[in-house]
Amino acid sequence: TQTPPETNDPTVERTLVLVKPDGVRRGLSGEVLRRVEAKGYTLVAVELLDATPGLLAEHYAEHVGKEFYQPLVDFMMSGPILAVAIEGQRVVEGFRSLAGATDGTLASPGTIRGDFARSWGSKVMQNIVHGSDSPESAAREIALWFPKL
Ligand code: UDP
Asked: How many angstroms separate the alpha carbon of residue 11 from the centre of ligand 1?
């Protein structure tokens, strides 16, 4: 086991993880949580929910208008999503590392996407998980998905 983070440790931060509808559908929610916990991160909040167009427009604000945006929204609304807020030292970078590259075909084996996702012809990449890309994004996204936190 690892030394638990000190409460005043400035490297402790939070990030938002989403198990996307493909991951939930394929029964990979537990596998994602298992990897997060095995790495030494702490679960702060977990909720299974259905995304709405408004929530996704805010969550994916940087992608609104791109070619893959509407297919992405349709995919993200194709079934329930497991939203998870997690905490730990350098967890934003750390979870991105666990998740692997966006394109599951190219993601390294050993990562969540590399082990469980493939991408092929269609415009939208079904890649099992989302992880915030910076501490600023994480704060914004956690407020969106967990307004009570
Ligand atoms: N995406 C896609 N096609 C693209 C780029 C992105 O389908 O050409 C989807 C994919 O599901 C990805 C999400 O949009 O995870 C957000 O894209 P981003 O570039 O932020 O990748 P991420 O941070 O999720 O790796």
From this structure: 27
